[in-house]
Amino acid sequence: MAHDHKVLSTRAACLAALRSPALTSNPGSDQANLLFLDGQAHARLRTVVWRMIARAEPLPDAVRERVEAIVRGLGDEFDLVADFARPIAAAVAEAVLGVELPPRVLADLEAVTANLDAWFGEGGAADTAALRLAMFFARAGVLPEAAVTEEERLVTPVVLAHAAVENSRNFLALAGLRLVTERRTRDVRELVNEITPARLVYRRATEDVTLAGHAVRAGETVAIRLDAGLPFGSGPHACPGSGVALAEAEVALRALARVLRPEHRVRNVLFGSHPVFYSLESAVVTSGD
Ligand code: HEM
Q1: Is 199 touching ligand 1 by the criterion CB < 6 Å?
Q2: Which structural domain range is residue 261 located in?
């Protein structure tokens, strides 16, 4: 992908960019996607999404128990992605969306890279998956709110489900890998800062602007690095699910620490290759050789 944009990497410039009204989140296409809206329209839809996320905050006992049961059910050999991170991220997303997510829906969610393809004009298979997901959530009656447009009603559950599943799955798997290899329990905030599952977000300048000393010209796209201690972003689009993400990780990692035995080893560690989403494809934890 040859993309022409400036990369901001100092924490001050990244913070300034995330909070600057001179930058838009809209890549110039989709108007109904929460991630791409600005100003009033964004604030209105974000309130709707907040109400859904509040279903899982604080983490309900039933979700906590489901997460613990998933971890207790791990056998002598298990995959940190397929058997640990994915089902846990799905359980939490189900609580937020109020609907079960069957395997084919999870597969479609993993094929959607909602906040990126629109920036680069590359949809393809991801667009087809997003369309199937929109139909699934519409049929399930997710988001019956009056305060949204018809298009927002279709797009919002897909954006929310993707945001919740993708980043949480990646974080849980990578944090689980650290637990297995380092054998010490860490503070989840420190872990998410270190891992930064979403590496970059994109914005476009609507006017000439200087961001902590970095000049950006009107029309230019900037890539904002989040690994400068901003794992949940900042400003109007800052992750509304950060509390849920940290709570689910705390329960999941504590439960994982309890089932790990001294003879457990990890093998077949395979990392994802996506430039934005830092991820594990698989990592097998086994007590045999
Ligand atoms: C460790 C896990 C997570 C990480 C690292 C993460 C990271 C982020 C980041 C960096 C953004 C900002 C995107 C931008 O500025 O363009 C974001 C937005 C968002 N996240 Fe998360 N997230 C996580 C988990 C979750 C969960 C569990 C939920 C839902 C329950 C969620 C829902 C959302 C939504 C709806 C947005 C869009 C907000 C907006 O555009 O106003 N995220 N997330």
Answers
A1: no
A2: 30-202+239-286
Position 9 scores a pLDDT of: 87
**Residue 6 resides in a domain:** no
Residue 93 lies in a domain: yes
Q: Which distant-in-sequence residues (6+ apart) come within 8 Å of 189 by Cβ?
A: 246
pLDDT digits (tens, 9 = 90+) for 78-94: 999 999 999 999 999 99
Average pLDDT over residues 101-105: 95
CA distance 44 to 46: 5
Asked, for residue 52, whether it belongs to a domain, the answer is yes
CA of 236 to the centre of ligand 1 (A): 12
Report the residue among 167, 168, 221, 246 best suited for mutation to probe ligand 1: largest number of ligand atoms under 8 A from its CB. 167
For the Cβ of 71 lying below 6 angstroms from any atom of ligand 1, the answer is no
- C-alpha of residue 289 to centroid of ligand 1, in Å: 38
Report, as an integer, the average pLDDT of 119-147: 80
Ligand 1 contact via 239 beta carbon (within 6 Å)? yes
**Residue 48 located in a structural domain:** yes
Residues 34 and 45 sit within 8 Å (Cβ to Cβ) = yes
Going by alpha carbons, the residue nearest to atom 3 of ligand 1 is 167
The mean predicted confidence, pLDDT, of the chain is 92
Q: Using CA positions, which residue lies closest to atom 40 of ligand 1?
A: 35
Question: Would you state the pLDDT for residue 227?
Answer: 95
What proportion of the chain, given as a percentage, has pLDDT over 90? 79
Q: How many domains does the chain have?
A: 1
CATH of the domain at 34: 1.10.630.10
Helix locations, the chain, DSSP H: 11-19, 39-53, 61-72, 86-97, 103-111, 117-120, 125-140, 150-182, 188-195, 242-259
